[in-house]
Protein 1
Amino acid sequence: MKKQVIIILGPPGAGKGTQAELLADKLSLYYFETSKILEQKFKEPDKNSIEIEGKKYDVLKEKKLWEDGILCSPPFVSYLVMERVKKLAGEGESLVLAGSPRTLYEGERVTPLLKELYGPENIKVFLIDISAEETIFRNTHRRICELMRHPVLYNKETENLKICSLDGSKLIRRKGLDDPETIKVRLKQYRERTFPLIELFGKQGIKVNKINGEQSVSDVHKDILKAIR
Ligand SMILES: [Zn+2]
């Protein structure tokens, strides 16, 4: 099978991570998680700073942003993402990306690299579409487990779930992050960042497939598979 890249976009609560995991399993893809790449870098910084396009980025300063819940500098993130993409492509891996690229800056740099390494015809972008009301509903109904704080999104499959399927601990609500007002802010940020990205993919000759996200996890998965084949 040809090496390929699948990119999944969608608002908070669309189930991007879940779909990425399912696709990774089904199609033997490498699940490319930007947050894990950042985490790794911060755990074992091999340099104090990285020079990108003539500007120095302090790794510890970026770590501080990360720990404060603020987005790291886009050039810093793009640099690490591109480094890892090159390595994985060299190893012959096919990729699935969820919620990444996150910014237009990142998309403008990472997309041409992906095209060069995999070929534009082997890159597929999916937008899991759910309404604003649904995003707010799902996120305000999101629960986490008491023991490991595993997130459990609200949907038909999980609405009656009482315990974490991974460790058996009780499921509870989060305060703050999942309040309707906070979700509205996250939704606004998502729109401001994602719409320019969709335009960018179009300009780069990559089609964005819209998938109805307001159906069961398995039906969303089936729709994505259908569009890939
Ligand atoms: Zn758990």
Protein 2
Amino acid sequence: MKSAVHKTSLVVRKNRELTAILEVSKVLTTSFNLDKNLSSVMSTLGSLLEMQRGCVFLLDRLSGELRIVAAHGLAKHNIERGKYRIGEGIVGRVLEKKTPMVIPNIGKEPLFLNRTGSRPEKDGISFLCVPIQFKNEVLGVLSVDRIYSKELGGVDDDLRVLEIVSSLIAQFVKLWESYEKVEKEKENLKRELKGKYSIENIIGQSDRMQEVFEAVYRVAPSKATVLLRGESGTGKELVAKAIHYMSPRSKGPFVKFNCASIPEGLLESELFGHEKGAFTGAVSSRKGKFELAHKGTIFLDEIGDLPTTLQPKILRVLQEREFERVGSEKTIKVDVRIITATSRNLEHLVSQGKFREDLYYRLNVIPLFLPPLRERGEDIPILIDHFLEKFNRENNRSVVFDKNALRIFLNYNWPGNVRELENTIERLVIMSASDKITAADLPVSLSIRRLKTPDKSASLITNVEEIEKANIIDALEKTGWVQARAARLLGITPRQIGYKIKKYEIAERAVQ
Ligand SMILES: Nc1ncnc2c1ncn2[C@@H]1O[C@H](COP(=O)(O)OP(=O)(O)OP(=O)(O)O)[C@@H](O)[C@H]1O
Ligand SMILES: [Mg+2]
């Protein structure tokens, strides 16, 4: 009768062992979370096989220490205490010898260090410890406590189960390690990519600028027409040059032409050249910009200002790469790459009939938008460093910004973008008496904004406009009301200052 009961309990026991092993292998494949999975393993062993305390120790290869990664039936402070060196205590022994150990009654075993301090009453408890190994490499140790009663299996059964569990753990740990490695590599790669695109002399760590750089890398090798868009001072010319110098035409000429810079009557001959006697004053024949840019790149700045009369001729160059000089019927063919730029709203000009739609589409093959500085504040500190370094070097100075000055720079909204920032820093480096720039040294244009407490009753627009008006008057005062100089001071174009003077009705009589 007794043996029948014993048999039944053995079958129950075997079933439990199988269930435990199955559970463990399930738990280990639920995720790549090392701590969570191993903790579940330990509690499975606890609940299905009456293994009271249990621990998974993993070897930290750097420190050579065994560390408890998961435990069952141990308080947190005990876990933290449970560190073993290789060869120390039973756990250390098992790791070193790569063989399981069983201490039938830990109360009588001097090797048992009880580092975790969790067994005040040692008698009657047996301690089982197996190595966790993958092929020949020992990764750690699995240990459990058991109180044996005659009915419930023996040590050998337990060891067998623990060895199976530990080999499952070993496989999981190996998988987890390679998963962690791949994840780390992915992270590193991402971090590298963030600063991956760099272009000489163009500063920009922000995502927005990194996107621009990436696009530059992509378009540079081709001959595609690029349209650069962005507010004044955002670096359109800088990017145009970068594209040219990063392209296969880098050894050819880079010819820049500003479509807004000269009177309409002279534009055609400037761009396409003329023959001797083509018009009054044409005493000799002359090559135009397109011819000069042969085998290189032509950069047409302020393309939105191109008069409608000239637009068809430009369209033809874009399509056929050919034209005639003024006063000549001979067709000239050129090999040029065309890059254009504008800070104006071309779509608006098209809808107003000031810009030909067909030309717009021809130019707009690859549009590149340069973000205004106020939308990429994270670039401001590195731009400051860049320009401080540049102007300190040029002027043999070692000027730095203090925290407050830096804060004002970060809060200012830079309507003149990088150019305004560059000019401001150059002025500060040259003019500053001391080597430390403080808030008090900053130009009024930046500090007005700082001193001004927002008037809650007025709309934001009015506030901004008031400040802008004050800045313009300030700049005009400083430059003897010479608009072009005031514009330069503010980092905006003469055209923009003219427009703003009219808009704010700044005393016309004082303005020449
Ligand atoms: N990202 C940048 N890094 C370093 N310098 C920059 C950057 N962007 C612009 N600059 C500097 O700012 C100044 C203005 O740049 P750039 O002339 O290219 O602007 P732009 O967009 O052509 O302006 P505009 O429309 O007024 O002609 C230049 O001195 C340029 O070197
Ligand atoms: Mg420009």
